[in-house]
Amino acid sequence: MRNVFAVLTLLAFPAASAAMPVAAMAQQERTPTASPAKLPDGGATVAQKRTAELDSLFLELRKAHDEAKAKRIATQIYGLWNQSGSATVDLMMQWANAAIHEKKYPVAMDFLNEVIVLQPDYAEGWNRRATLFFLMNDYGSAMRDINRTLQLEPRHFAALTGMGSILKETGRKEMALRAYERALTVYPMLREAQKEVGEIADELAGTRT
Fold this sequence. Notes:
Blueprint: H1 22-30, H2 46-63, H3 67-81, H4 87-101, H5 105-118, H6 123-135, H7 139-152, H8 157-169, H9 173-186, H10 191-208
């Protein structure tokens, strides 16, 4: 079976040193801060600026008719999704990615569980753990994390594609078709989703004749 999260790119994070123990870093992250960081002009917060950038990129993605251009825009979106706003979380995501590539799944799970504890509203933490659950053949947990990802970021086309793949693999083709179609409303040039929509539609048509 083709990887359910083939559309996902485990983007490399910058190399980081372990100058501070993870436990100490995590404790700092759990310490409440005063208020969200403001931009130098005193206007929108960093989070608000990131949201505005994502909104603009998603608009461009929907309008893109060239596959190469759409991929470049999608890469920019991935880049913003990977920005947790926390040095600790970014480091743990980097370590989790390395562990996944090395097939050290229990190690990766420990890091991703901590990421979610530290930042429960960080969509990419849930999405990455969904990927890991799939690799561990735990489709039920993967679907739960995909649903949480989509609650936090309904436009997460990679999560929608992953949902479609799991639904197809488990025999729920009509639901899989809807998931892939949802992905295409966000990212119309996503070739994997286009291919799956065509194949599933043909299969369903064959069963109805």
